[in-house]
């Protein structure tokens, strides 16, 4: 029997043998690239073990919710028209609430994206004369026009008389709690926190840090609402921001909590009265959550949630591998391959537009869908710069599947996420590095 204490020694001895067994020449991947990835994996054993144990704990949490709500085949049925009394939809809301640590949840395939879910929260909570305070610097690009800090302002919060303030992060990328409190007064209705780095070169925020901010805000302004953009953050930690003291969270189902199976949709979870306000923005006041035909989507969302902790673990392993490989190639990466991770995004700083584009095109070559395509930078709606997006995915735009995207601006940072299985993500990443090598960029 091989003991854990001898594992590293045996592992190093067998690198050549394993590389010999992994012959991907038929995929256009050289033995040199295979060896590079095998050596990167060599330092990740303990990290992978930690990720798997967390996935096990989160899987137990999801299973418990399924058991508590007696999930059966009857919950996977479809409704049409108004969708009144859809058992599957209503039970799914309850399960998400339990898993996320909230009083209530709103889970709908008809919420078209994470940005849509976040907008439901903002428009549901804020009224003319209120102030929105972002506590983690400038929010994700697609929220800028929603708030009214870019674009022509049509339909924005600004047009409705809602003001915006911003507390920047500290020099070391942490929440500036005292700075946030200095910007607050009785008009601040919502303090907004983006957990993930998004298109930023910073640490994603851990729930403990978010909780410290929420407690500080509530101590001084008890009626203020602390809301969290939880996109890319679900199941990365043992609990969600609601358990740390946030009032409301939201995220997309084609990211972490959909497990790669949800075909579309998003969720809002948290305090019951706040979820209800978001539901009024989705449908109409007085109707809220009570209407909304499921059109046969229940099964895939249930099954996606069931798989989500495992799928997120695959995402995190792929991200760590990506970080380790590019660390070895001399690139700046964030987070480091052995660092704690609080979202599924891995950033790589290329400092060169050609290298960035080559990497993203290589990711596309390694995808199961549209592998023949060569993504190009384009003027994507909601973004201030051209964006290149590589995503050969079964669900369009699903970042639970392997993808890479980047704004075309200095310092040319690629943001990699996803991987339904570690094995396919590894091959996709190898194709990306091989593409750069073939174009003599590394």
Structural features, described:
With 442 residues, the protein is of the alpha/beta class. The chain contains 14 helices and twelve strands. Strands 1-7-6-5-4-2-3 form a seven-stranded mixed β-sheet, with helices on both faces. Strands 8-9-12-11-10 form a five-stranded antiparallel β-sheet, with helices on one face. Helix 9 links the parallel strand 4 and strand 5. Helix 4 packs across helix 5, helix 4 packs antiparallel against helix 12 and helix 12 crosses helix 14. The radius of gyration is 22 Å and the shape is globular. The two termini are 41 Å apart. The N terminus is likely disordered.
Poorly predicted regions are 1-7
Structural class label = alpha/beta
Q: SSE order, as H and E? A: HHHHHEHEHEHEHEHEEHHEEHEEEH
Q: Helical amount among residues, as a percent range?
A: 25-40%
**Average of pLDDT:** 93
Number of strands: 12
Physical arrangement of strands within the biggest beta sheet: 1-7-6-5-4-2-3
Q: Sheet bearing the most strands, described?
A: 7 strands, mixed
Number of H/I helices: 14
Write down the Rg: 22 Å
Shape: globular
Q: Estimate what percentage of residues fall within beta strands.
A: 5-15%
Distance between the termini: 41 Å
Short description:
By secondary structure, the chain is of the alpha/beta class. The protein has helices at about 5-15, 15-20, 30-40, 45-70, 85-100, 115-125, 145, 175-180, 205-220, 240-245, 270-280, 300-330, 355-365, 420-440; strands at about 105-110, 130-135, 165, 190-195, 225-230, 250, 265-270, 330-335, 345-350, 385-390, 405, 415.
């Amino acid at each position: 029997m091989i003991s854990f204490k001898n594992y590293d020694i045996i592992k190093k001895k067998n690198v050549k043998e394993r590389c010999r067994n992994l012959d991907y020449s038929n995929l256009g991947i050289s033995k040199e690239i295979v060896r590079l990835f095998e050596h990167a994996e060599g330092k990740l054993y303990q990290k992978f073990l930690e990720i798997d144990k967390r996935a096990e704990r989160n899987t137990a949490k999801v299973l418990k919710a399924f058991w508590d709500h007696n999930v059966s085949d009857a919950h996977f049925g479809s409704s049409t028209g108004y969708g009144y009394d859809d058992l599957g939809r209503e039970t799914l809301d309850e399960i998400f609430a339990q898993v996320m640590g909230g009083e209530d949840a709103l889970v709908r395939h008809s919420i078209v994206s994470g940005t849509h879910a976040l907008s439901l929260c903002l428009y549901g909570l804020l009224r003319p004369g209120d102030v929105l305070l972002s506590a983690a610097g400038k929010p994700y690009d697609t929220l800028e026009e929603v708030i009214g800090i870019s674009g022509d302002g049509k339909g924005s919060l600004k047009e409705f008389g809602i003001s915006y303030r911003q507390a920047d992060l500290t020099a070391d990328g942490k929440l500036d709690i005292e700075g946030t409190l200095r910007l607050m007064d009785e008009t601040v209705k919502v303090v907004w926190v983006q957990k993930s780095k998004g298109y930023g070169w910073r640490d994603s925020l851990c729930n403990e840090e978010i909780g410290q901010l929420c407690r500080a805000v509530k101590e001084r302004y008890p009626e203020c609402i602390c809301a969290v953009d939880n996109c890319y953050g679900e199941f990365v930690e043992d609990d969600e921001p609601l358990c740390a003291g946030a009032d409301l969270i939201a995220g997309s189902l084609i990211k972490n909590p959909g497990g790669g199976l949800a075909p579309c949709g998003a969720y809002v979870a948290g305090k019951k009265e706040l979820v209800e306000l978001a539901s009024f923005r989705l449908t109409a006041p007085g109707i809220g959550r009570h209407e909304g035909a499921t059109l046969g989507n229940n099964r895939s969302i249930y099954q996606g949630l069931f798989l989500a902790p495992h799928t997120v673990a695959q995402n995190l392993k792929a991200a760590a591998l990506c970080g380790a490989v590019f660390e070895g190639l001399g690139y700046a990466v964030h987070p480091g391959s052995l660092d704690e991770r609080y979202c599924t995004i891995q950033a790589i700083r290329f400092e060169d537009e050609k290298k960035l584009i080559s990497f993203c095109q290589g990711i596309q070559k390694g995808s199961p869908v549209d592998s023949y395509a060569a993504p190009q930078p384009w003027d994507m709606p909601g973004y201030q710069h051209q964006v290149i997006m590589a995503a050969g995915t079964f669900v369009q735009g699903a970042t639970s599947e392997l993808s890479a995207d980047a704004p075309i601006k200095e310092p040319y940072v690629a943001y990699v996420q996803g991987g339904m299985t570690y094995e396919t993500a590894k091959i996709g990443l190898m194709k990306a590095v091989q593409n750069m090598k073939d174009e003599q960029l590394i």
